[in-house]
Write a structure and sequence with these properties.
The protein is of the alpha+beta class. It has two domains: 143 residues, D-Maltodextrin-Binding Protein, domain 2; 154 residues, D-Maltodextrin-Binding Protein, domain 2 (3-Layer(aba) Sandwich). The protein contains 13 helices and nine strands. Strands 1, 2, 3, 4, 5, 6, 7, 8 and 9 form a nine-stranded mixed sheet that branches. Helix 6 packs parallel to helix 13. It is globular, with a radius of gyration of 20 Å.
Length: 316
């Protein structure tokens, strides 16, 4: 069971099925939040054996619902400690990436305006009406960006920052697609050259471009305090009748063979550093050296309060 963005090499899955002698069924269940909700609601009669797609913004909620079995995969020792957020090993890290500002390089060159260097630039008069973000109540990157502002400006200061951002005519889209493919200047008819997206988006721009590009047309802002590190986990659903097979699937997802397919299928970084990165990631996908990260428990305690306060300040 996973979210709709899950993607992997079909030949690799077939090889896995052949080696272990059983069929793997993938149940896509909406976005990460919706999929987790389904898993929690069906905990007495689980819909799957393994769940992938819980990230650190929903981690405490998933653990509090007690829907996962602990499992210490032998491959876990290869995963960096900084990605291991669950000491109970009910959720094992599979991938990670940074949510951050992206900007249209050509637009800023044409206007002679310095591209944004961090969050503070977005509220300056010169950047009025230039930014599109996503609603944190309906969007995973929108929620991560809200957490970025909380991590940078504090629980006492983030709403003042958003008030200034609203005063500078920020546009709030419902989701990533509306923001990136609708309002961002890289889209036809888009008018906003700054968008909340991912640090890997410039690499994706090159990969999917109809024309062969040597340089990305967009860039990610990864200065200290301007990006949020998202980590995605997999876990064995409590109540599975196929525990041994579920453990094998977790091992497979942490293996270099599966992990090296993650970048060009899901556009994030593999958790296992032994997995080789494609050249396009090496050259064009960056990582923040000082990303914002809030503790899963703090998020669990405050998420709804923060979203409600944000909605009251920005949308009403």
């Amino acid at each position: 069971m996973t979210h709709d963005s899950f993607a992997v090499n079909e030949d690799l899955l077939s090889q896995f099925e052949k080696e272990l002698g059983y069929k793997l069924k993938i149940l896509k269940s909406g976005d990460a939040g919706a999929a987790l909700n389904q898993a929690i609601l069906s905990k007495k009669n689980p819909l799957a054996d393994v769940f992938f797609g819980v990230d650190n913004t929903f981690m405490s909620r998933a653990l509090a619902a007690d829907i996962f079995e602990p499992y210490v995969s032998p491959l876990l020792e290869r995963i960096p400690d900084r990605l291991k957020l669950d000491p109970s090993n009910r959720l094992l890290p599979v991938s990670y990436g940074d949510v951050c500002l992206n900007y249209d390089i050509a637009w800023f060159n044409q206007k002679g305006l310095r591209p944004p260097q961090g969050l503070a630039d977005l509220i300056r008069p010169a950047y009025k009406s230039l930014t599109v973000v996503q609603n944190p109540a309906t969007s995973s990157p929108g929620l991560a960006f809200l957490f970025t502002t909380i991590g940078t400006y504090g629980q006492d200061g983030f709403l003042d920052y958003w008030s200034k951002l609203r005063g500078n005519d920020v546009y709030v889209a419902n989701g990533w697609s509306e923001a990136y493919y609708g309002k961002f200047t890289r889209a036809r008819g888009g008018t906003r050259p700054i968008v909340v997206s991912y640090a890997s988006s410039p690499a994706a721009e090159i990969f999917y471009s109809e024309k062969k590009l040597q340089k990305a047309p967009t860039a990610a802002v990864l200065s200290s305090g301007s990006a949020y590190r998202q980590i995605e986990f997999a876990g064995i659903l409590r109540g599975t009748t196929k525990l041994a097979q579920a453990q094998k699937l977790i091992d497979f997802m942490l293996s270099p063979g599966f992990q090296k397919e993650i970048p060009l299928h899901m556009w994030v970084f593999p958790a296992n550093p032994q997995a080789s990165l494609p050249d396009i990631f090496v050259n064009h996908a960056k990582q923040s050296q000082k990303p914002v990260m809030l503790s899963p428990q703090l998020i669990q305690d405050k998420r709804e309060h923060w979203i409600e306060a944000w909605t009251e300040r920005v949308l009403r």
